[in-house]
Structure formats: C-alpha cells, structure tokens
Fold each of these.
Amino acid sequence: MTKWIYTFGGGKAEGNAGMKNLLGGKGANLAEMSGLGLDVPPGFTITTEVCNYASSHDGVYPDGLSEEFGRAMGRVEAIIGAKFGDPENPLLVSVRSGARASMPGMMDTVLNLGLNDKTVEGLARASGDKRFAYDSYRRFIQMYGDVVLGVDHHLFEDLLEDHKQGKGYSLDTDLDGDAMQGLVGAYKALVEEELGRSFPEDPEEQLWGAIGAVFSSWNNRRAVTYRMLHGIPGDWGTAVNVQAMVFGNMGEDCATGVCFTRNPSTGKNAFYGEYLTNAQGEDVVAGIRTPHPLSKAEKAANRSDLDSLEETMPGLYAELLGVRDALERHYLDMQDMEFTIQQGRLWLLQTRTGKRTAKAALKMAVDMCVEGLIGKSEALMRVDPASLDQLLHPTLDPKAPRMILAKGLPASPGAASGRAVFSSADAEAWAESGEKVVLVRAETSPEDIGGMHVAEGILTTRGGMTSHAAVVARGMGTPCVSGAGSITVDVDAKTMRAFDKTVREGDVITLDGSTGEVMQGEVPMIRPELSGDFGALMVWADETRTLSVRANAETPADAETARKFGAEGIGLCRTEHMFFDPERIIHMREMIVAENEAQRRAALDKLLPYQRQDFEELFTIMEGNPVTIRLLDPPLHEFLPHDEAGLEKVAEAAGADLKGVRQRAAALHETNPMLGHRGCRLGITYPEIYEMQARAIFQAACAVSQKGLRVEPEIMIPLIADKREFDVLKAVVDATACRVAEETGVSVDYALGTMIELPRAALRAGEIAESAEFFSFGTNDLTQTTYGLSRDDAGDFIQIYHDKGVFETNPFATFDVLGVGELVRIAVERGRATRPGMKLGICGEHGGDPASIHFFREVGLDYVSCSPYRVPIARLAAAQAALGGESETND
Ligand code: ADP
Ligand code: MG
Ligand code: MG
C-alpha cells in the first residue's frame, strides 16, 4: 500500500533529506532536521504522489489519505497539547508548499490556519494576549484571502495602512489588541465584498482549501511557465507540509529570522543573517520594519545601530550558533535557514543549501576543503566553471549609479569604459595617444582587428552572440555588447544615437558585456582578484585533470595572459591576425595585388622580419611549451580595403596601377568565402606564402634555442581535405626547414600536422595521419561544414530554431556531440589506428566550454585550447570531467 503522508517533529521523522522527490525539498529537510534532534515544530508532509494522483483524477484524493491524515494530525495535536479547531485551546498550523526544486511562482505559505471568531478568543485566553491572537488572525485572513481565495493582497495592505493612519501609528507593532480586532472585522468585510460570500469559519474547510490550492497551484500558469523555462518536468508534482505554528509575534521575547551558515555573497566563514523581534514569517524579508543584524560583528561591519540578536538574546544566539555548526557539519555545505523564537525557545523552520555568488562558491569550496569538511574532489565539483568568468573580468560596481542608453546581447563578459570611437583607425589613433576607447561599429569585419585589439570594449548594433565581433572579442577577452539594435551609428558624423541621447566621438561610454547594458559616462568598476582561493582551486584542478589546457593566442600580450592563467602552450596561433598591424598590412596588400611570383616574393620578404619577431616573442614567452602555429587561413580579399579610397592607397603604396588593383580586388571576390579560396588552398596556389611563414618560424626557433631556451614549434596546415594537399605543403615546409638549418647551422625539432575542420578530413583521417604528425580539431569550421551552416549568417534564425526547440543549444557555443562529435570520434580512431598515440587537440571556441570539454576528454584528446581568459575555466572543467561529473548549477 502506498504511504501518502510522512510525519516529522517531536525528535523523530519518517522521512529524510534523501527523499526530496517524494517529500519536496522543504519536507525532506524538515524531516532530516527532526531526525537530527533539532527543535522543529511537529507536522507532516503530504507527498508529491498525492499531487500527481489528484491532478490525474480531477482533484480527487487517493483512498486512504484521509485516515493517514487523521492519524498524522492526531500526532501533532498530542505533541503540542492542543486540538485543531478546539475553541478553548486551538492548534494552529501552517500549510507550506514545497517541490523538489525551489520554485518561485508556486503558491505561497498560509500561516495561523485554524483561526475563526471562536478559536481566536480561545487563543487569546490561552496565551493571555489578545493582541497576539488578533494579530495572528488578521495575518491569516490576509494570507488565506490572497493565496487561496484570490483577493488581491494590496487591498488588505491598504486597509492596514488606513487603520494605522487613523490611529497615528507607523508600525504594525503599535496596533493594540482592539485595533487588531477592528482590522480583522474590516478584512472579513473586504473578503465578503470581493467574493460575495463570507470568509470560511470552519477550520477543516480552511485546511483542505489550502491543501487543494497548493496542489492545483502546481498547474497554474506562472508555475507552468517557470517549469518550462527551467526544464522542470510537470510530473514532479509538489508536496504540502502541514506544520504546527510556533509564534514569533507573542511579544518582545519572540523573534523570527533567516540566516546563512556563511556569508552568501563573500563566502566568508561568518554567521550571517537578520531577524526581527515580535514578528512572524516573512516580515523580515517583506521590509515592513528594518531587520536587525544577528551578530555583533555584522552589526559593526554594517555600521548598524540596531540591536543584534547576540546582544538582545545572547543565550538563544549561542544556541543558534550551535545549530549552525551542527547543520553545516551535517550537510557539509552552506545552509540557508529560517528560525523562530517563541518566548525564549528556538525553533527551526527550514534549511536548504544556500544560493551563493560565484565568488562565495569559490571561497566556500576552498575553505571547506581546508577545514576538512569536504575533500578536494568535492571542492572542485562545488564551483561552476562557467561562473569563474565573472571573477576574471572587471565588473561594474553594483552600487554605482548608471544611466542606461541601450541593451544589446551579452556577447563577451566583463565591463569596459572608454571614449566612443567609430572606426578601427580612430580607435588606433586615440589609443596611440594614450586614451582608452570603446569601438562602436554597426558590425565588425577582420579589417577591424587592429581597432578591436586596442579597444577596452566593443559595441555593435548588428549581429548576434556568434557574430565576428562577439567571437573575436571573446577570444581576446575583451568585453563586448553586440546587436544593440536601438542604437544607430553615423560613421561619417562619428556619432551614435540611443533614444534621445547623442554620443559623439570622444564621449565616454561604459559597456557591461555580462548583461548587455550600454551606459553613458564612466561607471566605477571592481577589479578581479586572482586571490589565494582561486590559485588553490586551480592547483587541485591541475592535480586532477588528465587533459592539457592550451590557449589560442597570437600577440605577446595574449600569450602572457595565457601563461598567467596557466596555459600549457599555445594550441592555435592564427598568423593572419599578425598582418593587420598598419605597417604590415601595406606589405600584405602589396603581396596580394602583385602580378607575379617575383613581386609576391619581394613583398613577402618585407613581411618576413615581422613574422620572425612575432614568433621569437611567442617562443620566448611560452618557454619550452608547445606553440602551434597555423599557416595563413583566410581568403586574401579579407585583407583588402572595401572602398575606392582604400584601393587607391593600396595602388599608391604598391606602386601599381589603380585599374589593375581594382581588377584584382574584383577577381578575389567570392560568393561563398567560407568555402572558397582559403586555408591550404592558398598554400597550394601560392607556396611562397607558406614558405615565408615556415622560414620565419624556423629562423625564430633557431634564434630562441640559441639563447638556450627550449622551443617546440608545431606547424599546422588549415582546411585540409585530402592527404595529397598535405603532402604538397609538407614538401614546402620540410624543404624550408632544411634550408634554414643549413643557413644557420642549427636544426630544431618541429612537428607538422593539420587541422581537421572538414568532414572529408575526418573521414580520411587514417590516410592523412600517414603524413600528418598531429591533428587539431577546428570545431568552429567543422561545425559549420558539418551542418552546412554559416556561423556569420545564422544569427538571424538561430534564435527561432531555439524557440521552436529545433536546437536545444547553439552548436557554435556548445559542441554537437552527436553529429560533429561522431566525425571527431571517427577521426580520432582512424588517425590513431595509423599513427598510434598521435597527439590530438581541439582549438575551436568549444575548447573553453565546460559542457563540451567532457566530450573531448571522453573521446581521448590530449588537450583543449581556448582563449586565454577561458584557460582557468577549462582547467576546472577538465578536472570535473576527470572526476566524471559536472557541477550542479546552483539555482
Ligand atoms: P517559502 O517557501 O516562501 O520560504 P515557507 O513555507 O518557508 O515559504 O514559509 C514562509 C514563512 O513562514 C517563513 O518565514 C517560515 O519560516 C514561516 N513559517 C512557515 N511555517 C511556520 C510555522 N509552522 N510556524 C512559524 N512560522 C512558519
Ligand atoms: Mg521558506
Ligand atoms: Mg578554420
């Protein structure tokens, strides 16, 4: 036979904390606390199965419920020594909803249930306190009227205000017994007027009314919407807790409060909470009176002059401290508790694992491990890797006022302030003169790289979370707001308009890349501290993980950041980013518009020293760690200006005739550049480009190794589809290596491998591995080519795909394990079958995505590579993957 009701209280419980599915979170923890011997007012939990039964049987309850109910109620009455509905000595109860997961939007709690015109008199006599009895009664009518009968709570609050004003009082506590009684009369009249029937006087009717309301609230619109948004299944159901009332509103020796075993915003191991004397239920959070701090320390920290519980009730405070320790040691995590003090006796009403900020989660995990409460593995699982992002970027001071101009997409986290500039060239010019700038563009293109590099923040009015601006900004760790559609940019006038405000070039604006907000002026920021806790957690992560973590970096600054964050090498150095510097792009363009190989080589010779210098710096910074350099990848037209004036400049600089340059630019135009003349296809057509790059790499490697530093270059050829492409280019690179070794007399070891970013390459991996020494999965392109979906053009409809449930997650953000993953799996198997133990990594955006990292470990990759700012995230996620789990996000 199914058991429908579980009792708790009186030092015992039929349930426990492991029974959340059946008893809901609140009921399970009330049972657990009772079982621990803590003072919990006696009561019982009607299970979630009753909720499910009733909702599938037109609201009819299962057989046997009422007998169990009668027995459970009898038990509560016996423990309390009062009887539900008894006019002389009435038992009052609360009816509290409680699902498996906490769900705001469900029905609230009803307190003081069981009062009517007769029992209230009995309560007044039994307690010798009329004010208390009528205060409880008016609270009950308001709560029941609001949550069960559907009378707007504002109407009750207005009546209360009228009563206070009529008597010249400011606080609820000023109202005496007679005044409360008057208020009760007014409340009942209100209910009758609103509903056309009187307030239910029969306690049984009240009780079943409240229980029924809790159960049916499971299917109200708010709850259904909430469940949909949070992925909570409808068949979980809610439980109902019926519990004897304890009273914090019986006078000045009574109180009610909420507390956290540690500070939920800083994580500090200090008892934290608030209370009010002579108050009940939600008074503390409702802001009716200013709540008081619990401890003297907190009072001092807040410069409060309100008496702390430690001062007013030192004995009870000490008892509460004992409960704090007991619960934390029992649950081994920070608890969020509710308590009530009735005439000198402490009662516990709720405990649950407390919500916390990212900062607090980190600190608590490390502290609890150091304190010996939890082990290192558990500490690692306690922190959500994605949340570390918040700790790595400067954030806006939450207390600072802000004037919001617009809201776009939170494309790259962190906050930035700077002078608004409207072109990449202006960004570089202002930055040159030492100003901080925010680059504002309709959208960005590879031409904007220079400006993006120097900008503190990037704002675009078009494009989504995976637009060029968003992807590049995340890669650089630069805050970015994209797609702020309510802003219009006038590039010629160098202004932008947001609503009625105009921002001119040089005006300061602030972006919050974590919320998408764009603000006028400078908003003060808080700098992240890579504090001791962060470092400690990272050390544990490194001890635990099996995947290596590298960074995608091309500038010395990025490489330094990557090292600082613990990268074990560079997994992707995109050489094209190195050509956008103003003094280099000229030579690049000369090379592109050259009419023959000789001219091309002349231009490449001018680029060579720059490239060599870049690589020398990277090798030096990465000291003996592998540096994977990808040879030129994007189509050449990305390096040419798009306007006539720009082309004129190119012609002038290259000493070429304008018509020829124009023709060359037109010839380079492609219908579908993503699938066009790029990657190794450039190397096959113009081997001298790859030759120059290889030469720069080998010369740099020689120079650095001659200084006594170990170098480990890994040269990577992009967009290979066929082994023969690879072999043609391998010949170029190997020959160059020989020549440099002859010239310098130094030979350095290097590895030559390829990106796997086309489905064909994944399928033919076995063959390609005969020549290629390593693979790096370029999951951005591999996702694009597997789906046949251009990331840059998907922005407009991917949201609709999402809304219609076609895509659960964006495959460009979270790796598609099923489809793209199968190609990766095939390539891993076939590659390693040819070349056992071959080194495999991943260098797409997904390398820094915690959910994706689990797959990369499982499939057997050696490393992931991600943007420098995501390195710590990847280190933690890799540790969690090694531990075989993912941290629960704290909701
Ligand atoms: P929520 O889920 O919104 O927190 P609760 O069921 O916890 O709702 O109750 C709301 C408030 O009423 C809390 O402050 C709680 O401590 C208080 N409360 C609930 N039941 C009782 C009771 N039996 N005696 C005294 N206070 C109670
Ligand atoms: Mg609560
Ligand atoms: Mg690619």
Note: The chain has 35 helices and 34 strands.
Amino acid sequence: MSTLIPHWRAGARWPGATPEPERYADVHDPATGQVSGRVALASGAEVDAVVADAVAAGREWAETSLSRRTSVLFAFREVLVRRREEVAAAITAEHGKVLDDALGEVQRGLEVAEFACGAPHLLKGGFSEGVSSGVDVYSIRQALGVVAVISPFNFPAMVPLWFVPVAIACGNAVVLKPSEKDPSTSLLLAEIWAEAGLPDGVFNVVQGDKVAVDSLLTHRDVKAVSFVGSTPVARYVYETGTAHGKRVQALGGAKNHMVVLPDADLEAAADAAVSAGFGSAGERCMAISALVCVDPVADRLVPLIAERMAGLVTGDGRRGSDMGPLVTATHRDKVASYVDAGAEAGASVVVDGRGVQPDGAEGGFWLGPTLLDHVETSMSVYTDEIFGPVLSVLRVPSYDAALELVNANPYGNGTAIFTHDGGAARRFQHEVEVGMVGVNVPIPVPMAYYSFGGWKSSLFGDSHAHGTEGIHFFTRGKVVTSRWPTPDLPRPGIDLGFPQHR
Ligand code: NAD
C-alpha cells in the first residue's frame, strides 16, 4: 500500500492516522514510473474546515506585532536553508527534475523569504504633517485575512514561496492548494513553517483537484487568490474568483522566444539555447521553446546547438544526469505527439529525443532533448505551449520580422535577445510586448525584490508576484486624516462645503 499524502491543518498532517480518503490520486516517481504515494483530494467540506481554522488563526496573526512576525520569517529562512536538500529530494522524487535544478528552485524560493524578512520596511506607510491647520494624513497597509495560493506541478517549492512568505509577513493566513502531481513538498514547507514558530492555522495545505480549487474560489472567507498554472485554468480562476469578489492574480502559460541577431556571440547563444530549452526538461514557464534566428544565423547556430545536445545525459535526476524525465506518462506522450506533428507538417528533426536511451529505469517517463528546424508559425509545435524538451527554430529575414513574430504570439511571459548591438537590444526591450526581457540572458527571472509576471495570456489580473507588487497584493491600503484639538486651534465650526485643505 503506497503512502498517503494528506492535508496540513492546525499545525499537523490531517488526517494524522490514515483512514482511506474518499477521493485520492496516485502520485508517481517519474524516473521509474512507479506509484510512490496517494494524495488525498479534499472535499468542499474539508476545504471549509481548513478555511475556518485559517480565519481564526489569521485574526490573531494580523494582531501579532510586526517584530514578532518578522522573527518568524527569519527563522523560516534559517530552517529552509538547513532542510533545503530534503526539500530538493522531495521535488526530484515526484517532479523528476535533476537534484541540482531542484536545489536551484529552492534557492530562488528562499530569496523571496529573504525579501519578506524586510516586511517592516516594506509595510511602512507615508505621513504628511500639517496638510491643513492641525490636520495630518497618513497611510497604512493592512492584512486581507485568508488568502489562497494554487500552484502548478513544475515548481512545487518555488511557486508557493513566491507568495506564501510575503502573504504571511503581511499578516495574512494562507491556504495552499499544491499540484496533485507532486504534493509532498508542500508538507515539508508546512513542517518548516511550524519549526520556525509560525502559529498553527496560519499556513495550511489542502491537497486536491478542481473540487478544492472551486471551493476556495467561491468561499466567502477567502479574500485573495494567487494562482499559477496553464492559461485556460488561469483565465477560469481569474473570472470565477473575481466574480466572487476576490482579488486575483492568475499567472498562466507561456511560449518564450529567444531572438538571435547576426552579430551575437553564437557560442554563448548556443549554450543559452540549450540551457534554457532543456533545463527541467522544458517544464518551466520561462523555458525557451522558440528560437528566432535572424538570417543568416540559423545555418551556423543550429549545428552548434546540436553538437551541445549530443553531450546531454537524460536520466534519473538522482544520478547526476543533465535532464530528468517528464512529469507523467500522459504528458510525455503529448509532448512527443507535438514532435510527430511538427515532422509531419514539414519541420526538420535535427535531434530526435523520441528514441532516447536514458540513464534510468525502463518505466520512466522519458523523452530526450529534441531540436526542430524550419518550424513555421502555423505548426502546432509553435502555436501551442508544449512544456517539454522541444526547441523549435524559426528563421526570419530581419529584426523587424523577429519582433513582429514575438509580438503576434498570444503569450507574453519571458523573452530574450542575443546581440552585441546595444541599440538593437534597447529597441527590443522597449518594443517587445512581454513582461520579462533578457538581454544576452536566456531566462530573465527577476530577483525577489522585483516582481515576476507576464503580459497578455500569461497573466490575468494586474499584480505580478513578489517584490513591491506582492506586498501590495497581500495588503489593503487605508488613509487616515486626523485632527487633534489643541488650545491654539480654533474649532472648525459648521461648513457644508466639500472639505478643502487650505
Ligand atoms: P494546471 O493549470 O494544469 O494546474 C495548475 C493548478 O490548477 C493545479 O493546482 C491544479 O490542480 C489546478 N487545476 C487544474 N485543472 C483545473 C481546473 N480545471 N479547475 C480548477 N483547477 C484546476 O498547470 P500545471 O500543468 O500544473 O502547470 C504547468 C502550467 O503552469 C504551464 O502552462 C506553465 O506555463 C504554467 N506556469 C506558469 C508560470 C508563470 O509564472 N506564468 C509558472 C509556472 C508554471
């Protein structure tokens, strides 16, 4: 019987013993294909019970002094540093990404926790003395109450950490609904919060699927929702959550382009394309999946990339491989079917990952790195988000054609330009309709003190994750105008006119 992966409620695994959950889903080790656990899928009533706890705990937490809240954040950071390898191992065991990459994910999440340690400064309001006779005005930011975080499979630690430390530092209680494909990391994060001294009920986990998501989206006591996942679900979450009066930020899918101009350092561009195309088996929302080569770059760049790909080892992430398996067999088959469709539509398969010989068990969900050349914008391998280790090369005659291609794409998460021409790079950063731009940097994920988010179909809502936008998302502003009577101030008297501070 495989292990049950439960919820986290009132500071402990819930249910603590292991009665059969009414609904559950199998969790796999993608490198072996074996079922490694069964995750509970919450009912609406279970979500209600967790939210009720969070409401009560959140009220007290919001009244807890900022200094005390901050000390828990610092402690969380310390415990996470100490337990980072354990967290990374849990990620690799259920997601499949190689251990180094999993550690990198934890590190990027940790940076948001470090950012959130600055909450006392970040939550400071403004104060204007004497805006009128004896009148002062000041602004404060207050917690929202209970907020929900709904996360995707591809970053089981980093994506929750984009939101949770910031929300908690701001005085909110959080209910996390992780992906049912790799749910165990969420419980480790919960243990780490508990070890850091966070009061029970401030951080909670409900495992589950659409049932749990819908319960959170329609729950009266959930005040805000931070979602990350595919575009159709992001749109649904945004529309449903806002229709129920919630503040929602819903980060969606992506199709990221790397534009290479003829004057670029092609050796560096080839390194970047391989790293950004095949890291985490392409299961990153910032992965490069479309390489836009401005003529005559492709003739030289494609062989350089193929040469590098020949040295990549696909295999079990615990064995020092370069690239792990895909997350599920279904996803692997879907990604492979895009390669089939691309080849049938006339793309040339320069490197074919479909017959890869992995360094791993036979039953793993393997697909090797794949390079397609002469891809056209009408092919499904280009139009759809594939989310796998497939890099498509599109050839264009000029910078203008490259820009037009990138801007015509419905997604706008990340993009990069490779060039030695500062003027062209500056033009690109100004003209491209994408939220995160790299100049000779293939995966321009902003640091925690900036905000992460795309444009167009890559984000619904108007707040990006973490940075100052995160602080604003998880707080409500209030402005106080005050007058304290003093002996030297005349009483204002009756005045039915609109208040004017003169
Ligand atoms: P997904 O949309 O399938 O699932 C995301 C979350 O939504 C999960 O918790 C899942 O349980 C839930 N969910 C799934 N279907 C649902 C439905 N019909 N109704 C309600 N909830 C539902 O995404 P995924 O496959 O887990 O993750 C990969 C996707 O996430 C990719 O599209 C990727 O680009 C995107 N992503 C985007 C970013 C970003 O920052 N923009 C970051 C990471 C991942």
Note: The CA atoms of residues 130 and 136 lie 5 Å apart.
Amino acid sequence: MRVARAPGRVNLIGEHTDYNGLPVLPMALDREIVLAFEPRADRRVILRNSDARFPAIDFELGEEIPPDAGGAWGNYVRAAGQALWREAGPLVGIEGEVSSTLPVASGLSSSSAMVVATAIALLDASHKSVPRERLMDLLARGERYVGLEGGGMDQAISLGGVAGSALRIDFRPSLTLTPVRVPEAWRVIVAPSLVEARKSAGAKDAYNARVRECREALARGTGHGARDYQELLARVSVPEALAAARPLLDDVLFRRFRHVVTEGARVDAAVEALRAADLAAFGALLRASHASLRDDYEVSSKELDELVAISEGAGAAGARLTGAGFGGSIVAVASSDFSDAVLSALSRDYYRPRGVPSAAFVAVPSAGARVAWGRAMPGPLFRSF
Ligand code: NG1
C-alpha cells in the first residue's frame, strides 16, 4: 500500500486576492486528506471513502472525464485525473480508500487537498513527475472542473507547505513561494463556524459573481490599461488607484475594487509584521481585512462576525474570516499567553450554546503533500512534491 497525504490550509491574510493576481499568506495545516492506494493495471479509479456520507467512486481516466452528479466528492478526484492526463497522460488507475482529518466545507481547503492527494497518487502510480510549480498551476486550473473560478492559493500551499512557516505566494509575474517563519510565541487558532461553505452548492455562484465583479471593475477604465490587479498596483499607489476608480464605478463595484487593492497592500504589510514578530501590527491587519471582507466584499456571516468578536474580546491580537467566506472558519492570532483564554471563550460563548464542546484548534504550520510507502512511515521514504 502506498499513502498520499495532502494537507488543508489556513489563510492568514490575502483573501480573494489570488484570482486577481495579488499575493496571499497561507500556511499548510497538520490536518490532511489521506489516500491509501495501489496502482491498477488499467485506467480505472476506484476509491472508497471512510466517511459514510460519501459513496464510493469508480470511473475511467482519460482526456475528457464526464462529471459525477453535482456536488460529489468524486468530482475533485475526476478534476485531478483529467488535468493530469492532459498534461502527463496516459496514466494508470488506482484503487484504494480516502480518509480525512480535515472538516469538510470549512474554508480549510479539503477540496484542493483531495485534488492534490489524487494527483500525487496518480503520478506515483504511473512513475511520472511534473515540476512542482507546474503541478500547482495545472491543478489550480484543473479544479475549475467543478465550476468554481478559483485562484491558485490552495493547491500551491497544499503542495508547497513548509513546517514552521507561513508562505507568501505570489502569482505574478510567475508563481513564487516564499516561506516566512511563524514566531514561536504566536498561536494561530482556527475556529470553524459549523456553517458549511459548500462551494459545490450556493456559495459557488456568490464566489463566481465576485470574480466577475473584480474583472468588470478593472475593465471599466480603472485599471490604467493593466491586465490584472498586480499590474495595476505596480503602476499606481493604492490611494491613486482608489481616487481614479471612484467616479468610474457604481457603489458595489467600487467596494469590491477597494477590498482587492487594500487587501493586496495588507499582505505586504503582514509579511513585514511577521518577519518583525510584531503581533500588534499583524493583528491590526487581520482586523482590517475582516472589516473589508464583511463590508466591502460582503462574504462574511453573522456566525463568522461572532467568532471574530469572541476571539478579539478574549485577547487575540486580531481575527478574520479565512477562505472564501459564506460560512467556513475564522483564523485568530494570539500570543501564547492568551491562546487558552481565546479557546475557552470560543467554547463557552460559541460552541457550547450550539451543543458541541468545541471545534476550535491551534493550527501547526506543516509540510506539504507527499507520498509514502506503508501506512504512516515517516523519514526518507517520503517523496516530496
Ligand atoms: P476556499 O473556498 O476557502 O477553499 C477559495 C479558493 C481560493 C481563494 C479563496 C478566497 C479554490 C479551490 N479556492 O478557497 O483560491 O480564492 O477562496 O481567498 O478555488
């Protein structure tokens, strides 16, 4: 048996920036999709899921793989199979079982972890390889198979995660990953809202609408001829971009535009704060990011706002929704002195009233996806991608 493991991620800052060409700052989690598999002699993929909610899947790899009925987890497997076949095919199939320590639809990228785990399993089974950055990019485009016009953050961090570090990921002019160590005394707390952000369902339309609005805002002359927001901000400052955009955009488009350009600048500032171990400055940026996502981008919810308020009230330096929003999770950053207080407050004020002891956890910045022989053998037998 071989085992492919692909972690989920928590994004510290840089939300809804990746598909606009601006950077992000996620870290890979110590929670992951685990795919135990054996290569097959033909091109069938047969996978069981240890979670009884998800029925087994069985399909043939190829250039054009027909989708399963909407919303099925098997579409993330198909997405990886089709993208990889087009890049590196023909491939041999696999047979095995998927399990997960990642909560689904929680803004922690279990879907991209599924795509990445499938891809590295198929490559391993077929004795093929694809250069790392190329794989990140092709899986990002490949995941659009499920109908979400997503960016490239999730596949890149799941493949490229570095233990102990967050990664600044730039998408332009080329995909670049820069690890930035998370200070020992900081705690990154993830708190799921228990409201699922199922992008295979309603949240997909809301997400794709934001992608279109951002393109439209740029096309209405606010982009100074730039092809994306990265090019725009290489030409003009944030205040200049905002002043020029105001008269050209209606209220909604202006607020979408304002979120994107200010969030891009917050990523730059957050990387500096992280390098300087300046927790107060980092926390202030998280707060500003959340306000912008709530008021300008309109992707928060009352549950996410409540989690943010509880965390900050209990001593977190800052907190914000993480991932696409519309449900999912928040991330809070606190000094080690305050993390217990934050976790207790979340349990007392958010989870217990909803009938669960807690769902929050301290996230450990972890390594990226890998394939190993046997069930859980660490060390040199791991092959990194
Ligand atoms: P989630 O929904 O949290 O997995 C999505 C996109 C990201 C990024 C964030 C918002 C995919 C697979 N994921 O992440 O690329 O745009 O929203 O910052 O499309």
Note: The first helix runs from residue 74 to 88.
